Amino acid sequence: MRALIQRVSEASVQVDDQVLGKIRRGFLILLGVGQADTETHAAGLAKKTANLRIFSDESHKMNLSLKDVHGEALVISQFTLYADTQKGHRPSFTGAAPPDRAERLYEQYVADLKSEGVPAQTGRFAAMMSVRIVNEGPVTIWLET
After folding, report:
1. Residues near 17 by beta carbon (within 8 Å), at least 6 away in sequence
2. Which residues are catalytic?
3. 12-45 in b/e burial notation, b at 16+ Cβ within 10 A?
C-alpha cells in the first residue's frame, strides 16, 4: 500500500457538487493499493498513519501524532499512486490491485484507522472526485508497506 499524507488545516472532497467528506485539522490521505497488499498491510499502515509524528509541539518540533492533536483523516482512493512511467509517456497501472480487491483493502484501512481512534471520512471509491485542501506547512509524507 502507498499513502501520500498531507498535513492539512482543512480538506474536503466532492462528487457531482455534493460534499462527501470534510475535515478540519488532520491528514488528507491519498491511498493506493498494490497487487501484493493484504489486510496485514492495511492494519500496519493505519497504525503507522495514526501515530506518525508530524505535528509541531510547543517547541516547534514535529513531535505530535494525529492522535495527539485529536486530528481527523480524509482518505481518498488513488490507484494512480501505482503509475509506472518507466516506458513511454503514458503511465501503466498494472501494479495497482484490481478494483474489487483494492476497494476491500481501502475500506479495511479506513476501518483500521478508526480503530486506532482517528475519526475518518472518505470520498467515493472509483469516482471522479474534486479534492480541496489547505496544506499546513506544507508537510507531505510518503508511506509505503
Report:
1. none
2. 78-80
3. bbbeeeeebbebebbbbbbbbbbeebeeebbbbb
- What are the extents of the domains in the chain? 2-144
CATH of 2-144, one of 3.50.50.60, 3.50.80.10, 3.30.70.1450, 3.40.50.300: 3.50.80.10
State which H helix or E strand residue 104 sits in: helix 99-115
Residues constituting the chain:
145
**For 51, what's the count of Cα atoms within 13 Å in the CB-facing half-sphere?**
9
Pairing between β-strand 26-32 and β-strand 62-64 as defined by DSSP bridges: unpaired
What is the tens place of the pLDDT at every residue in 97-125? 999 999 999 999 999 999 999 999 999 99
What is the torsion angle, in degrees rounded to the nearest 10, for the CA atoms of residue 99, residue 100, residue 101 and residue 104?
110
pTM for this prediction: 0.96
Coil/strand/helix, residue 61: coil
Distance CA 55, CA 57 (A): 7
